[in-house]
Amino acid sequence: MLEEAAKTPVQECCGLLAGRDGIIMDIFPATNTDANPATAYEVAPRELFRMIKEIHARNLQLMGIYHSHPRGQNFPSRSDVERAFYPETPYFILSPLPGAPQPVRAFLIRDSNVAELKIELL
Ligand SMILES: [Zn+2]
Fold it and tell me: Which CATH number applies to 2-117?
C-alpha cells in the first residue's frame, strides 16, 4: 500500500484489500477518479464492480478500503466520515510522509463514529 501511495505523491491513491479469515492477502489498486484527487478519492463504479468480482472469483473477501493522505495526517477527514458508506468494512488510511509515526492506520466508520482498529503484521 505504501508503495502505491508513493507512486502518487501529490494525489490520493485508493484501492481495495482482500483476504480470508481476518488476514489480508492481496491488494487491488484502483484509479482515483475524483475531480479533486489531491484531497479526495473516488473509484469509478465499473472498476469497483470489476474488483469485487475478481475478489469473489478468487474466493476472497473484501477486507478493507484504502486511500492515502499525501500531505495530511492519516486520520479520517470530515469528508472521509461523510462518505463512509461501508460501516462493516475497515478503512485504511496511509501517510506516505517520511517519518510518519504510523504510516498505515485502520478505522471503522459507523454513523459518523470513528474507531481505530489494531493492525497486526504476520
Ligand atoms: Zn481521506
Answer: 3.40.140.10
Grid cell locating 61: 473477501
Residue indicated by cell numbers 504510523: 102
Ligand 1 centre and the CA of 80: distance in Å?
5
* Closest C-alpha among 113, 62, 71, 65 to residue 93: 65
- In this prediction, residue 72 carries a pLDDT of 84
Task: State the pTM of this model.
Answer: 0.95
Return the domain boundaries, the chain. Answer: 2-117
Instruction: Kindly give the distance from the C-alpha atom of residue 44 to the centroid of ligand 1, in angstroms, as a whole number.
Output: 17
